[in-house]
């Protein structure tokens, strides 16, 4: 085992430098060590930094949490009212929608607790406690309980988290779980105690013509006029503890909620965001950036573009399909366009050149320090990239095609067909009954309310030949031989046979099989062959990539440790990993290109200017047009009488920050972050302080829509608002 090297990050990466720009998704628990208060105060922070995060008292941290599976939400009333983005609540809105109750089109407004809609599967998570466990991990490495390479692994970290929970005073408390994660590429480790509430109900959502105004066209773009918000509420048992849904549950009396400011904002005003950024890769080498571009972004763009072309056409032709696929399409489109923008921005913003300059500087630093590990590490990472690029590319095409693209036979429960075959061969009645029960679950899982067999058939007819075109023959699942030999290479004929005749194709076929299940029928079934082949090939490709990865985690650990030393005393933030972070900056306009200036805010006037009744992305609701015509904005208008919609800040954010609160220098809510700008989509890899902007919906627009369009004065009345 290599000698363990421990980085004292509190010294190397945590010293304040006045040259620090706005870059940084900062760990709350390191803000004082990194002396961020001085910089934040200089930019306009008025509150005490200890009121932002203090492990010994209630702070702003306690009003922010994880909404659903990948967004941020903030508490905006004493009664557990959550504000997040419309696109974050989109799954829930779609889940409750039907042709008869089309909340996607019409919006949803609960005028009382009784009208709020339970949303199965939706959760809200608070960070209850953060503990530094770096020394515990290093001690385990020194004692041989885990290797340094294994310390990054989920198996070890899950056990560590479970063991620490057992020793904690929070053991056995309702809703409490733990998560241990590496930071600074394994140079630091933190343990998070999470409290999860599982009864979260839908309260308010504007129509998609407001919440998604601009659609694909405006996504990642400025100027923006999107009312990207929705509201939910946390319910708990009578004692305030997390509990599964019950009619007896009551709105949670929270320990902290955000005050809302209607004071407005000016260019240069301080702005800070607290949330859960998903993933950044700021410490990649030049070769790894190329890997991201070619091995991940290009395959993702290629496959999603073909699938979305089909979905777009089918959704336009049917309201039923539009509702079924609305959330799926939005999720797919978001990172399709992000990947396009990222590759363009990497070139436009000369990210590769910047990385090359950093590596040259690092080589000189390593030589000066006479550090052999530092001198060799970039070259070893380059070797890794050369080794894994073809495998990474193949696996991306595979996952985009078979795990994200084609839905039929996607579920792993279909493997129960083989379990059933085994049970039938052994004539074990109980095992047969168990396998059949699993198969029934699988059928229901596939043919759910948001799945259309004919739409998916059309997707398969395009994606199966596309995958074969893009990867070498050895990356093809075995069912491609059936296409070649039995169907003479005719993909359409193969897909039709699969979607018409297989056990899982329709209820008639499935019930006929269940009434008389035989091993012969399973062995002849195309869906059984398809599912087994896809599963087998995925494991094969994933195993090859895992083997090719080698000791890349340890190489990254060495490289990041060296970079922190090289840049000292300037503080560096660890890459985002969906843990709670703070970013600070200012309200600010920008100039994307010669002769073009974007001001820092937009107004409702821009919505009317963009209106296009023939384009579903730019339809404006009649009620909103009426409010605009009469200037019925109430107390939410600007001093000049206009209605603000969105604004820009220099905050450093990424996916996962969607829904995050944007707060002023007093910690008061002024907006909700929902996007970044097109010109800086390389920001997850390399932050550009001149171009990087966060796009937020103005809280005044949110409240205006809630009160004037939604008629929910009841919600306004429960908030704490300062004029």
Whole-angstrom Rg? 27 Å
| Helix-and-strand structural type | alpha+beta
* Number of helical elements: 25
Main sheet: strands, sense, barrel: 11 strands, antiparallel
Shape: globular
Assess the beta-strand content as a share of residues. 15-25%
What's the helical proportion of residues? Answer: 40-55%
Distance between the termini: 62 Å
Q: Which consecutive residue ranges, at least 5 long each, have pLDDT under 50? A: 6-12, 14-21
Enzyme class: hydrolase
InterPro entries: Pep_S46, Peptidase_S1_PA, Peptidase_S1_PA_chymotrypsin
Function: Catalyzes the removal of dipeptides from the N-terminus of oligopeptides.
Protein name: Dipeptidyl-peptidase
Can you describe this structure?
- With 723 residues, this protein is of the alpha+beta class.
- The protein has a domain at 286-552.
- The protein contains 25 helices and 23 strands.
- The strands form 4 sheets. Strands 2, 3, 4, 5, 6, 7, 8, 9, 10, 11 and 12 form an 11-stranded antiparallel beta sheet that branches. It has an 8-stranded antiparallel beta sheet with strand order 1-15-14-20-21-22-19-18.
- A hairpin with a 5-residue loop joins strand 3 and strand 4.
- Helix 9 (286-317) packs parallel to helix 12, helix 12 (372-403) packs antiparallel against helix 20 (526-549) and helix 15 runs antiparallel to helix 17.
- Mean pLDDT is 94; it is low at 6-12 and 14-21.
């Amino acid at each position: 085992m290599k000698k363990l090297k421990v980085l004292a990050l509190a010294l190397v990466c945590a010293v304040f430098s006045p040259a620090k720009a706005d870059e940084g998704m900062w760990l709350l628990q390191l803000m004082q060590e990194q002396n961020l208060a001085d910089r934040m105060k200089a930019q306009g922070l008025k509150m005490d930094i200890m009121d932002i995060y203090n492990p010994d008292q209630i702070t702003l941290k306690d009003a922010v949490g994880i909404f659903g599976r990948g967004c941020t939400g903030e508490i905006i009333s004493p009664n557990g009212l959550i504000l997040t983005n419309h696109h974050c609540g989109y799954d829930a809105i779609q889940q409750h929608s039907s042709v008869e109750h089309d909340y996607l089109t019409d919006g949803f407004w609960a005028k009382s607790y009784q009208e709020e809609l339970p949303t199965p599967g939706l959760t809200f998570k608070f960070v209850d406690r953060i503990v530094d466990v770096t020394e515990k991990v290093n001690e385990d490495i020194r004692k041989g309980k885990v290797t340094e390479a294994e310390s990054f692994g989920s198996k070890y970290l899950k056990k560590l988290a479970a063991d620490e929970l057992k020793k904690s005073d929070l053991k056995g408390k309702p809703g409490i779980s733990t998560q241990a994660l590496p930071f600074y590429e394994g140079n630091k480790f933190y343990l998070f105690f999470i409290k999860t509430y599982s009864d979260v109900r839908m309260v308010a959502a504007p129509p998609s013509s407001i919440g998604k105004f601009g659609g694909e066209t405006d996504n990642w773009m400025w100027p923006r006029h999107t009312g990207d918000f929705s509201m939910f509420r946390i319910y708990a048992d009578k004692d305030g503890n997390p509990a599964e849904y019950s009619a007896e549950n009551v709105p949670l009396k929270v320990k902290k909620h955000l005050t809302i400011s209607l004071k407005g904002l000016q260019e240069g005003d301080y702005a800070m965001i607290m949330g859960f950024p998903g993933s950044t890769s700021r410490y990649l080498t030049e070769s790894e950036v190329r890997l991201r571009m070619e091995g991940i972004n290009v395959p993702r763009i290629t496959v999603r573009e073909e699938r979305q072309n089909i979905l777009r056409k089918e959704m336009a032709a049917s309201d039923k399909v539009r509702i079924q696929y609305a959330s799926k399409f939005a999720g797919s489109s978001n990172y399709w366009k992000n990947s396009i923008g990222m590759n363009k921005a990497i070139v436009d913003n000369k990210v590769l050149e910047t990385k090359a300059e950093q590596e040259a500087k690092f080589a000189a630093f390593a030589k000066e320090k006479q550090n052999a590990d530092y001198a060799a590490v970039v070259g070893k990472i380059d070797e890794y990239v050369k080794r894994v690029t073809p495998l990474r590319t193949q696996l991306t095409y595979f996952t985009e095609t078979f795990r994200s693209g084609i839905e039929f036979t996607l579920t792993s429960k279909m493997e129960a067909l083989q379990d059933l075959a085994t049970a039938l061969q052994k004539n074990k009645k109980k095992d047969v009954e168990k396998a059949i029960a699993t198969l029934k679950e699988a059928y229901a899982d596939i043919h759910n309310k948001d799945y259309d067999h004919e739409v998916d058939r059309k997707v398969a007819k395009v994606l199966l030949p596309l995958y074969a075109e893009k990867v070498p023959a050895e990356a093809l699942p075995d069912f491609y031989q059936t296409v070649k030999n039995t169907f003479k290479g005719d993909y359409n004929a193969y897909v039709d046979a699969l979607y018409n005749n297989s056990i899982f194709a329709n209820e008639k076929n499935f019930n006929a099989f269940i009434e008389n299940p035989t091993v012969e029928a399973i062995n002849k079934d195309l869906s059984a062959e398809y599912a087994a082949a896809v599963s087998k090939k995925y494991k094969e490709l994933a195993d090859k990539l895992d083997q090719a990865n080698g000791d890349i985690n340890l190489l990254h650990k060495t490289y990041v440790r060296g970079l922190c030393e090289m840049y000292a005393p300037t503080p560096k933030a660890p890459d985002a990993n969906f843990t709670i972070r703070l970013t600070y900056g200012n309200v600010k306009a920008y100039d994307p290109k010669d002769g073009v200036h974007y001001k820092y805010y937009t107004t409702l006037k821009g919505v009317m200017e963009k209106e296009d009744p023939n384009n579903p992305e730019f339809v404006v609701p009649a009620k909103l047009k009426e409010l605009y015509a009469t200037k019925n904005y109430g107390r939410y208008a600007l001093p000049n009488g206009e209605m603000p919609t969105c604004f820009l800040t220099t905050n450093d954010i990424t996916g996962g920050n969607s829904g995050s609160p944007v707060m002023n220098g007093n910690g008061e809510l002024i907006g909700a972050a929902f996007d970044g700008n097109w010109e800086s989509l390389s920001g997850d890899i390399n932050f550009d302080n001149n171009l990087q902007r966060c796009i937020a919906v103005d809280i005044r627009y949110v409240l205006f829509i809630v009160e004037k369009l939604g008629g929910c004065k009841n919600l306004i009345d429960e908030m704490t608002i300062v004029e």
